[in-house]
Design a protein that fits this description.
Layout lengths: L2 E9 L4 E6 L5 E7 L4 E2 L5 E2 L2 H16 L4 E10 L4 E4 L19 H9 L2 H9 L9 H11 L1 H4 L4 E4 H10 L4 E2 H4 L6 E2 L4 E2 L1 H5 L7 E2 L4 E6 L2 E6 L2 E2 H12 L4 E6 L3 E5 L8 H5 L2 E5 L5 E7 L1 H16 L13 H13 L25 H21 L10 E6 L5 H10 L4 E5 L4 H14 L11 E3 L1
Parallel strand pairs: 1-6, 6-14, 6-15, 9-12, 16-20, 20-21
Antiparallel strand pairs: 1-2, 2-3, 4-5, 7-8, 10-11, 13-14, 16-17, 17-19, 18-19, 21-22
Helix pairs in contact: 2-3, 9-15, 11-13, 12-13, 13-14
């Protein structure tokens, strides 16, 4: 008897994966693909969308013909800040533009001026001013910079919903894609911001993230999910598996601190310090802050390696020295070494006198003390006045850094601080949100892989 499975396409900027889950949400297969990037019509780097389209179509058809698996459902989790434009015949009009593409600042400034100024606009849309990373601004850029193409546009889809559309032909949207710093959503009124109508954007009304559409492929009926934004997908397992309120610290190149239980509206000060709101699978704002943690760590460690003649991975051998940590904390109260003595410092100093350190180990303890201070500053931005959550979950690369864990958990000694290891949390969340429609009787137990710090 063939095993019933759910196929998830997890499409990141670097890696593209297809993961197969059984109905207990165990991963039974994982295949990773890498597609070389191409250039768009302006010569700027972008994803090769045609190869991605073909990969999805061929993979699904192959699974439908499988002698081993009984494909029941498909869903998509992708990076955000990306739009796809369709003409009246449902054909894609443009390449999939890269959200790092530069933009003339005069384009968003026109919208800011007509809607209360930049501070009020960003507060209301819970979106720091980030250029093309505000995907709504991408549509306005297309309208004014490439009017001949924009005139052909009949529908605008977010990237997860476009990939779903490839199989279903359904024009739709959902809240997690709209709510990821797109500048499209009015978080005060919880609907599209009025500027979208003023600019004539054709945006579908959002549907529930668990929406599915049944289609027939290769003579087999398959239920296709609507797609989900990857950050919101990674939160989904915690909604199902956590006891009590929580804050999630997702670490890596970026450290993203997500508090789904902070109902306070964003302030101008929080926006200035890189706070934003995502939207959860329950359609609620998720107040979040960001820190370029992994990047700052890499820059500083490279400086230490250069001075001490150590190899790239040497920092992984450093064991916590608690006396040394106390010395470093004391030094930080007087003056930081790697960063300026300013709140919300975000740049490593260009010049450092590394001869103040007797060893790499001493310098690394100082670095992690300062990075942890910056992390705690960012986390505090999303902790409300009532501070009524119980658990903090730390995931990603820094969840394996004992110095980081020690320093952050000490800063929140009144909370339960855990490391959490979930394999492919984004894909798991995408599978979880459609499982109830595929098999209502199955209530899988979420293993969050918790270890208390």
């Amino acid at each position: 008897m063939k095993e019933k499975i759910i196929a998830i396409f997890d499409v990141g900027k670097t890696n593209k994966k297809i993961l197969l889950f059984d109905f207990r949400l165990n991963i039974i297969s994982e295949i990773e693909e890498r597609f070389p990037t191409i250039t768009d019509d302006d010569g700027f780097e972008c994803d090769d969308i045609e190869k991605i389209e073909n990969w999805i179509s061929e993979s699904v058809r192959k699974l439908c013909r499988s002698d081993k698996y009984d494909l029941k459902g498909v869903n998509f989790a992708t990076y955000g800040a990306t739009l796809v434009y369709l003409d009246k015949n449902g054909k894609r009009v443009t390449p999939v533009y890269n959200y790092l593409k530069p933009i003339d600042e005069k384009i968003p400034e026109k919208i800011y001026r007509r809607n209360g100024g930049q501070d009020e606009f960003c507060r209301r849309t819970a979106s720091p001013a980030l250029g093309m990373l505000n995907s709504g601004i991408q549509a306005v850029w297309l309208k004014y910079e490439k009017p001949e193409l924009f005139r052909k546009v009949n529908h605008i889809l977010h990237f997860p919903q476009y990939l779903s559309y490839l199989l279903t032909g359904k024009i739709c949207s959902e809240h997690t894609s709209i709510g990821c710093h797109t500048a499209l959503w009015d978080f005060d009124l919880m609907k599209y911001h009025q500027w979208t109508l003023e600019e004539g954007l054709h945006l579908p009304e959002p549907e529930d993230v668990g929406t599915i559409t049944e289609v027939e492929i290769e003579g087999k009926k398959i239920k296709i999910g609507i797609g989900i934004h990857d950050s919101s997908a990674s939160l989904a397992p915690y909604f199902s598996g956590s006891e009590g309120r929580f804050l999630l610290i997702s670490t890596g190149t970026w450290c993203i601190n997500m508090n789904p239980f902070n109902t306070e509206k964003l302030t101008a000060e929080q926006l200035d310090h890189d706070c934003l709101c995502y939207m959860s699978i329950t359609k609620q704002p998720v107040k979040s802050s960001r820190l370029f943690l992994g990047h700052l760590h890499e820059v500083a460690v490279n400086k230490l390696n250069e001075h001490f003649g150590t190899n790239d991975d040497y920092y992984k051998t450093v064991k916590p020295d608690f006396k040394l940590l106390e010395i470093c904390k004391s030094k930080c109260r007087e003056k930081r070494f790697f960063f300026e003595n300013l709140q919300y410092s975000r740049e490593v100093k260009e010049k450092n006198d590394f001869f103040v350190f007797k060893s790499f180990e001493e310098g690394y303890h100082q670095l992690m003390t300062e990075l942890s201070e910056l992390t705690v500053e960012a986390i505090d931005l999303v902790i409300p006045a009532e501070n009524n959550f119980e658990n903090i979950y730390i995931t990603g690369g820094f969840a394996r850094n004992p110095l980081f864990l020690k320093l952050v958990s000490d800063s929140y000694s009144m909370k339960n601080v855990y490391t959490s290891e979930i394999s492919n949390a984004t894909a798991l969340g995408a599978a979880l949100v459609i499982l109830g429609s595929l098999n209502p009787s199955e209530k899988p137990i979420m293993n969050l892989g918790l270890n208390q710090c």
